[in-house]
Write the structure tokens for this entry.
Amino acid sequence: MRHLLSVLLENEAGALSRVVGLFAQRDFNIETLTVAPTEDETLSRLTLVTIGDDRKIEQITKHLNRLIEVVKVIDLTDNVHIERELMLVKVRAETDSRAEVKRTCDIFRGQIVDVTPNTYTIQLVGPTEKLLAFIEAIGSTKIMEVVRSGVSGISRGTKVLSV
Amino acid sequence: MAEMLSGGEMLIRALHDVGVEYVFGYPGGAALHIYDAIFKQQAVEHVLVRHEQAATHMADGYARSTGEPGVVLVTSGPGATNAITGLATAYMDSIPLVVISGQVPHDVIGTDAFQETDMIGVSRPVVKHSYMIQEAEQLPHVVKEAVYIATSGRRGPVVIDIPKDTTDPNNLFEYHIPDKIELRSYKPAERGHYGQVKRATKALLESKRPVIYAGGGVIQGDAAGELTTLARRLNYPVTNTLMGLGAFPGSDQQFLGMLGMHGTYEANNAMHHADMILAVGARFDDRVTNNPEKFCPDATVIHVDVDPASISKVIAADIPIVGQCKAVLSQILDCLDEEMQTNGVDREAVGAWWNQVNTWRGNHGLDHNLYQQESASGKLLPQQVVQMVYQATKGEAFVTSDVGQHQMFAAQYYKFDEPRKWVNSGGLGTMGFGLPSAMGVQFAHPHATVVCITGEGSFMMNMQELSTCSQYSLPIKIVNLNNQALGMVKQWQDMQYGGRHSHSTYADSLPDFVSLIRSFGHVGIRAESLQELNEAVELAFSDKHAMDLVFIDAIIDPDEHIYPMFVKGGAVNDMVLKKHA
Ligand SMILES: Cc1ncc(C[n+]2csc(CCOP(=O)(O)OP(=O)(O)O)c2C)c(N)n1
Ligand SMILES: [Mg+2]
């Protein structure tokens, strides 16, 4: 099962390496990982996607909590939540295919953020499935480069993760 | 006005202020400002070792035998990396250490400077936490916080890496140390959840075939008193892990001995047939469970531990309780007072269970009287040696050990009636731990009898510390169970590799240990027969040698195996009981 864990972390040098090290050391897997400071700059918010059965996820959560700099951990997938990922894709867009690329981009509500005579750079935001669907729709022959941010997530409703 | 001190002076002052008596260390370039600060004071005593690994084990022995954190000081690069084995040893057994490493100055960090090693990175998987000092002013606070983290919750080692510029004697700062540490991100569990405690108490009373299984957490968590009270009140059988020996009195009738790979027949059988297991401060290590799929099929498992990550890691707990062992056991005792007004122990069922347990004990229990007569082969048996040491010390010594057959013989035949008396590397199984840890114990308890039961292989991994023993006049008694082989490896090769002794023997190239010991100014005695052993032990523990380090080189039967032993992949009670069984 895929899980989206959200971690509140002291924004200190070395804290991130402890989280990443833990996953390597205990043979836990990381699909994606994003991290940046929150509105309170002494704290970072880290979101990571991992895969495992309930027992594994329980262990991951407990071990994350054991790290001294980890303030809180929640499994967003336990509850209704929103997840988003940002993707930048550079695609070949020459005369004959330009219109088609643009049309596909519109269908997916993407934005063209850079243009050259032969390429479009498209920005797309959404859940991971949407990004993957877009890549499939454009077709691998046209894609020159893909950069994904990894997933960020937040609970729906009034529920918050804070100190 | 606050006193003005350099970074190095603040470090030492802070160590003193948090109650540190001894620092075990070894100097080098990056640590020299700190060493100069040490030179100028008397409050904290520095012990000069001969190898940094040994320093960590000394601090570890000090910590295990007192409950206070052990402190180490090493230089950068090779000094720091030499400390890694000791950190890993302490980490696996949850022992509070503070390891301070010098580091190259900030302005050259990252340039592959002379003796630069990323200590924070290298040590990360084997520490509870670590700090890289950015500014000298941080030092007192970090020392206080490091000790707090090392000694609270599930205990463990902490590293403080100190770049040389932050200890510069030319830069002075106002010294302030906080009274108390509060961390929003670290709140170790104390008391257990009341509802869970109540459920556990009920399950305890409902049991017909109970076993109490206690581990190192009871010792490190100072809960042996509570555990003993609870076990006595219920009159339930108790077994301890290798790390838990001494958590319940070893010479008590209620004690079944150690469980696990080399545990007793009665302990492992009681575990396997139990309908309820109260696990306290234990982590269901693979050396205890054997095959987890076949582990204790009928038991309701109550698991008390301060570390939530230890609970349901290997064996799913039916009643998990997160909290300090001491606090939770007291809660259970209180709850028992209440509960027992209406509801008692099932005396009849537990009586029948005791009969069963005693039958197991009668059939295949350990023979504690082997020392009374010569073995069939006439060669010394390791069991006889341990038994004789037990008699001579009246079971009251601190005993440290190394790793191998000798360690298991010591664990089986020396009965520990008190916690913190048995000191060994259980989790990591570090050969070379025995002598330096005994030294740490002796520093902490200068008037106590400290025995190191070792094997010649393990002893040779840190024997350079004999020189440190001379320097500080440490009257340790070393008992070398000399089988002229890496006995444990050889036993596995006998059992699983058709007796092919690949690189496990070296009889022709061993030193003459007696001369070796004497060259350091200590007393060496060789014993080959029961008679010689008797004399050697008597002499070693006599008043005549009360102030001397005495080494008994006991030449034992090289073919002796350690039993019982798990059958690989089986249940806990699938055991080989003797050779070629
Ligand atoms: C540092 C280290 N290296 C290797 C091992 C693997 N090992 C476990 S027991 C053992 C043999 C120990 O020999 P000795 O100290 O003579 O004890 P004996 O088994 O003969 O009593 C070895 C090599 C270990 N535990 N630690
Ligand atoms: Mg040996």
